[in-house]
């Protein structure tokens, strides 16, 4: 299964009165929600403060851009590795593994 195409954004939400608010990560292109991240508080079994919750939402929203950047870096590094750059080859292997893990079902 493929991920929802980017651009992704995030915003705050407070629609759940039993919760202490949090963040919604959503797709601009397909206009659908992708993830809800709740701040912890008296109603949460998890201990994620609002700053960490916001940072997680920002990272998730950046995922499509990060994937594109990784693929561009991979192409550049693969070219360097083909020309004998050993460090580039190690980076190619790491990036290929990370991209594969992100695209697996």
SSE topology string: EEEHH
Walk across the major sheet and give the strand order: 1-2-3
> What structural class results from the helix and strand content?
alpha+beta
Give the strand content: 15-25%
Using the CA coordinates, give the radius of gyration.
18 Å
How helix-rich are the residues, as a percent range?
40-55%
The total count of helices amounts to 2
Unreliable parts: none
Question: How many DSSP-defined strands?
Answer: 3
Our count of domains comes out at: 1
Features:
single chain, about 100 residues, alpha+beta, three-stranded antiparallel sheet
SSE topology:
Elements lengths: L7 E6 L8 E6 L4 E7 L11 H33 L3 H18 L2
Antiparallel strand pairs: 1-2, 2-3
Q: Any overview of this molecule?
A:
With 105 residues, the protein is α+β, with helices and mostly antiparallel strands. The chain has one domain (8-103). 49% of the residues lie in helices and 18% in strands. The chain has two helices and three strands. The protein has helices spanning 50-82, 86-103; strands at residues 8-13, 22-27, 32-38. Strands 1-2-3 form a three-stranded antiparallel sheet, covered by helices on one side. The protein is elongated. The protein starts with 7 loop residues before the first strand and ends with a helix. 10% of the residues are buried. The model has no long low-confidence stretch (mean pLDDT 80).
């Amino acid at each position: 299964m493929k991920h929802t195409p980017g651009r992704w954004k995030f915003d705050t939400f407070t629609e759940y009165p039993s919760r202490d608010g949090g963040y919604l990560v959503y797709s601009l292109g397909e206009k659908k929600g992708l993830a809800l991240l709740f701040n912890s508080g008296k109603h949460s079994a998890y201990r994620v403060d609002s700053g960490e919750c916001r940072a997680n939402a920002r990272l998730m929203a950046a995922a499509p851009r990060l994937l594109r950047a990784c693929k561009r870096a991979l192409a550049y590094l693969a070219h360097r590795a083909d020309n004998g750059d050993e460090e580039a080859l190690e980076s190619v292997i790491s990036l290929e593994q990370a991209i594969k893990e992100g695209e697996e079902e």
